[in-house]
Amino acid sequence: MNPSSTSSTAVRSDVCIVGNGAIAKTAALGLAQAGYSVTMLAPPARPAVPDESSWDVRVYALNRTAHTLLSKLKVWGALDAARVAPVDTMQVNGDGKDAGLLAFDAFSAHVGTLAWIIEDRNLNQALDAALRFAPKVQLVQGRAACLTQGPDDASVRLEDGTVITSALVVGADGAQSWVRAQCDINVDYRAYHQKAIVANFACTKPHHGVAHQWFTGAEGIIALLPLPGERVSLVWSAPDVLADTLMNESLGELAIRLAVYAETDLGALKPLLPEAVKAVPLTLVRPHTIVAPQVALVGDAAHAVHPLAGHGMNLGFGDIDALLAALAAREGQRAIGDARVLARYARARKEEVLLMQVATDGLERLFGANLEPLRLARNLGMNVLNHLPMLKRRLMAHALGK
After folding, report:
1. CA distances to 205, 239, 307, 333 from 244, in Å
2. Position with higher pLDDT, 21 vs 379
3. How far apart are CA 400 and CA 402, in angstroms?
4. DSSP letter, residue 112
5. Helices (DSSP H) in 185-250: which residue ranges?
6. What is the predicted pLDDT for the residue at 295?
7. CA 267, CA 262: separation in Å to the nearest integer?
């Protein structure tokens, strides 16, 4: 990836990607390897992480769709494998004394592993390494001011006057997407009034590659995901009031709270040093369309979902895979920003994204309700489903991206 000075007043490429996260970088790499010239518009560089040996609190559970795409782009092999943890089993627990139990395992799904837990930093470092050898990608640092869509191309003007012109603009700039707003795309929005509390812990018992999740009712949804060694990563989707309380406590106090759920399987939890914790507000963002003239949205710009299923990032990788396929299948006379080409991309993503949006939003509503009859019914439903292997395999196949 070749850095470009924004002192130039005009930049032209086949594709302009707005964003600088893992989804934006993967899109840039995929499009460049497909033969397109790519300009990445990114904000000014963030300060370097002071201690890269620490464990990043932001992690992803990547499925086979993500694994296949990153392998094809020669990124998977560049990951630090010592910091990647396979998930062999997922155990989901209901709430209350008669809590339901639902377990999925790789053996029953006829796969080697259900998912891979990867730190955001590890993934971005591998992508950065791959992009350094991508001659068709240039990076322009600056802040976008205006997006103009014409009949044949689109232009992004920066605050310093630089103009990036391309046949296709890819909005990979997150749930509060600037690109989406510039295209006047309406969204359905739901605030969950929850925050995802993320932190990492050591555990005194081996986790055996098991990802644990507890639907607790009033306290939200707790997930402990396996990290390499005897370590786990916490994602606690907590109601706002509780989340604020958790953020005001020490990680030691948080570990004591978690012991109620985790001690039997994982033993005592101890915060990893240096201690780090973050809180991320949770929302559902459902744009009415993911395409506009010469524009395609990917990742959270196209769909932000509740993290209870761990598939937000996987949906983004699915977007990139579908966009690359739509561009590869286009007729020779059609430009990459052609309306029909982009409509095919949107259709290819509609079913999977809608299913994940409905499933995650529905589960959050179902398990967030504290009515006793509903609590009993959902726990019973989990136990019944746990004894229906064919239905479980179908659910796993969808989750795995098979």
Report:
1. 29, 9, 19, 55
2. 21
3. 5
4. S
5. 240-248
6. 98
7. 7
Domain ranges of the chain: 2-46+123-188+284-363
pLDDT digits (tens, 9 = 90+) for 58-97: 999 999 999 999 999 999 999 999 999 999 998 888 776 5
Question: How far apart are alpha carbons 88 and 349 in whole angstroms?
Answer: 28
**CATH for 2-46+123-188+284-363, options being 3.40.930.10, 3.40.140.10, 2.80.10.50, 3.50.50.60:** 3.50.50.60
The 10s digit of each residue's pLDDT in 184-222 is 999 999 999 999 999 999 999 999 999 999 988 889 999
Mean pLDDT, range 144-164, rounded to an integer? 94
Pick left, alpha or beta for residue 368 (phi over 0 → left; psi -120 to 50 → alpha; otherwise beta).
Answer: alpha
Rounded to 5 degrees, φ, ψ at 345 are: -60, -45
Once rounded to an integer, what is the mean pLDDT over residues 245-271? 96
Tell which phi-psi region holds residue 334, choosing left (phi > 0), alpha (psi between -120 and 50) or beta.
Answer: beta
Task: Please report, as a single letter, which amino acid is at residue 305.
Answer: V
Strand segments, DSSP code E, in 36-128 are: 38-42, 59-62, 85-87, 89-93, 101-105, 115-119
Chain centroid to Cα 398, Å, comes to 16
Q: Determine the pLDDT at residue 135.
A: 86
Residue 189: strand, helix, or coil:
strand
Helix (H, G, I), strand (E, B) or coil at 251: helix
- Which of 55-59, 244-248, 290-294, 351-355 is the least confident region? 351-355
Burial 133-148 (b: 16+ CB within 10 A, else e): ebebbbbbbbebeebe
The residues that bridge with 90 in the sheet, in sequence order, are 104, 211
Question: What's the pLDDT band for 396 if we cut at 50, 70, 90?
Answer: low
